[in-house]
Amino acid sequence: MREFRGKTAVVTGGASGIGLGIARALAAEGANVVVADLDAGAAKQAADALRALGIRSLAVATDVRRTESVEALAAAVQKEMGGVDLLFNNAGVYLGGPMRRATEDDWRFVLDVNLDGVFRVGQIFTKLLLEQGRGGYVVNTASVGGFLSYGAGVAYTVSKYGVVAYSEAMRVDLAPEGIGVSTLCPGPIDTNLPASDRFRAASEQVGGFSEALSPLTRGGMKPGEVGPIVLAGIRNELPYIFTHDDLREAFAQRFETVLACFDRIGAPAAG
Ligand SMILES: NC(=O)c1ccc[n+]([C@@H]2O[C@H](COP(=O)([O-])OP(=O)(O)OC[C@H]3O[C@@H](n4cnc5c(N)ncnc54)[C@H](O)[C@@H]3O)[C@@H](O)[C@H]2O)c1
């Protein structure tokens, strides 16, 4: 997809950070934007500000952890906007801290939003895009953590490895239908993600904590810089959209380690 003017985009997690950065970049190019977010007040504020840029914008309070909420979002998009052209499957939360401290509640909190949520939104909107029969584009937000794992924030990393796999499958499945798919893999971006455990229920057993991300993201790239990078990635139909070139070496090391293990097949086991 090369032209965004007049298209309708849905952005989950669009009231803050990367989602809001994408929403602003889309609006600047004349796209209409549906801001879908758990934080209804922030979503309304974002949609009001986007409307001031001269586009149509709608705020829809949405919880990607609940199927009926995502179905209501899809129905609102059809009714109010006449359908969807671009989906940004972006809502997410973070928990860090050492792997050994991760609890089952940590795991469920993160996986429910970051992986199950991406699946719910992806499946419901794929159905809508296919019914419409007018092509479209999907960007699923993973992370560089979808390729690099370091023994901390394990639920987060597992969720993002999952988003990479889900998004790759979607790209293959939807290509014949004229629907493009990219996986967004940001490095550290200065957003509200380090405060995302405010969404946890008081009853949960806490091991990991989201503030652990703060030293990495504070002073990092601003969300406003991410939006244009994402739109350029869509125009070039990139399978993966990266934001930080300085992480190239960490990726090279990972894949070299993987390939070196193939070289050692048949070699006598060490020790
Ligand atoms: N900030 C980074 O460094 C970074 C790096 C890589 C990937 N990411 C990913 O980018 C995406 C956006 O995160 P961000 O950094 O902009 O954080 P953010 O906290 O600023 O924005 C996330 C938004 O998602 C919303 N949200 C949370 N739970 C939700 C739910 N159940 N249903 C609907 N909305 C929900 C929040 O209200 C918030 O507005 C996430 O998937 C995150 O994992 C962020």
Highlighted features:
271 residues, alpha/beta, 8 helices, 45% helix, 13% strand, binds nicotinamide-adenine-dinucleotide
Q: In words, what does this structure look like?
A:
The structure is a single chain. With 271 residues, the protein is of the alpha/beta class. The chain has a single domain, classed as NAD(P)-binding Rossmann-like Domain (Rossmann fold). It is 45% helix and 13% strand. The chain is built from eight helices and seven strands. It has helices at 17-28, 40-51, 67-81, 104-132, 154-174, 214-217, 223-235, 248-263; strands spanning 8-12, 32-37, 57-61, 86-89, 136-141, 179-185, 240-242. The chain has a seven-stranded parallel sheet with strand order 3-2-1-4-5-6-7, with helices on both faces. α4 (104-132) runs parallel beside α5 (154-174). The N and C termini lie far apart (54 Å). Bound molecules: nicotinamide-adenine-dinucleotide (NAD). Nicotinamide-adenine-dinucleotide (NAD) is lined by residues 12-13, 15-19, 37-39, 42, 62-65, 90-94, 113, 117, 141, 143, 186, 188-189, 191-193, 196, 199, 217. Nicotinamide-adenine-dinucleotide binds next to α1 and α4.
